[in-house]
Specification:
single chain, mainly alpha, 6 helices, rod-shaped
Length: 186
């Protein structure tokens, strides 16, 4: 009888270790996913100053649009990576502001013809596509992790070792769920 109880204790402890390791693995996948988003957000942020310099020469009287993009870029960088939900809201506004900038730029044929502007436009479009992919990966990893944190019996291990649910990276406004339109058709 003692061997049966001892065997059950070993089985329960072994199962707890397996669950713990799964939770650690899922948490690392969430961190990896956020890293991918962070890289693309930084890439987009790095493109903005050069894009604004290119645009300023052609759109001097669109000062408010340019200042809005600059201010939102600064706010996004100030939030950092610790609060995905807050960062998503600001990045959503930044994406919308960049979209408005591109729409305003269509009124300037010389700007549309500029080689520098075309290069920035292509780089921004590529970055937005990569960001969308990274966001899907991250949110998938968050979904898997959060499910495991909530499901029984893994929720017992998660609670014991203080595993907290991760935040999704979601856009606030459903109309912002599409990438900003940055292509120029003639």
């Amino acid at each position: 009888m003692e061997w049966i109880i001892f065997g059950l204790i070993i089985a329960v402890v072994g199962y707890g270790i397996v669950i713990y390791n799964q939770l650690v693995k899922q948490r690392q996948m969430v961190r990896e996913g956020w890293s991918g988003i962070s890289v693309q957000l930084q890439r987009r942020s790095d493109l903005i100053p050069n894009l604004l310099e290119t645009v300023k020469g052609y759109m001097g009287h669109e000062r408010e649009t340019l200042e809005n993009v600059t201010a939102l870029r600064s706010r996004a960088q100030a939030v950092g990576d610790d609060h995905p939900a807050e960062r998503a809201g600001i990045e959503s506004m930044l994406g919308a502001a960049l979209g408005r900038l591109m729409v305003v730029a269509e009124d300037y044929p010389e700007l549309k013809a500029s080689e520098n502007f075309k290069e920035f436009q292509d780089a921004l479009e590529e970055t937005e596509e990569k960001l969308q992919f990274a966001r899907r990966y991250y949110n998938g990893a968050v979904r898997q992790f959060n499910t495991q944190v909530e499901q029984f019996p893994s929720n017992l291990v998660a609670g014991q070792f203080r595993f907290q649910q991760a935040e999704y990276f979601e856009l606030d406004d459903p109309s912002d769920r599409a990438n900003p339109r940055v292509s120029f058709g003639s």
